[in-house]
Amino acid sequence: MTQNDGELDGLVRKRIRALRVAQGWSLEELATRANVSQSTLSRIENGQRRLALDQLVTLARVLDTSLDQLVETASDDVIISPRIDAAHGLMRWPVKGDPGISVMRQRMTEPPPDNPSRMRAHPGREWLVVLSGTATLMLGHRRFRIEANQAAEFPTMLPHAIGAEGGPCEILGIFDRDARRGHQRDSDSDGNSGSGIGSGSKGVGGDCGPGGPCP
Fold it and tell me: What is the pLDDT of residues 58-74, one digit of tens each?
């Protein structure tokens, strides 16, 4: 066994114990759920028994995780720097564990559009939280006022747009792959890589980095 293999082996054992403790389970309870003896589980956690694939699959399932996550190697690449679009006050971070997800922070100064035709609808789902100020979310025929520290989540198949209310506001948004692509298509069709959620005004929905839309 190489040094790297040994480090991963120890990391997997620590994860099993940490996940068990997080569930509030004793060795006996997890052993019963995983259909192994308590002594076997104790030796697995303490490094006194070889890790068997079939046991890891069962433990991962019982501990509500996946085998891939259980045996994932530790990453030194922990810090992620944002891609910045200074022209639109936007920062974007990828989520390495799920490349389909994007996290964006944006400062908005314009209200949402008055014209419903400027609202957009596309596949996907969005979640956002107002970091400072107050935002107005237009969703279908409804209007929502979102204050600092309040969050909103909605399916993007509903026509939607967002903007600032009564002064600048900052928003942090999380977009799934479909929502991100939908906004990128809207940006391309509008000829504006910084368009916001369903609108041509500045908003959290822009999905671009320096030099243009993100792939």
Answer: 999 999 888 888 888 76
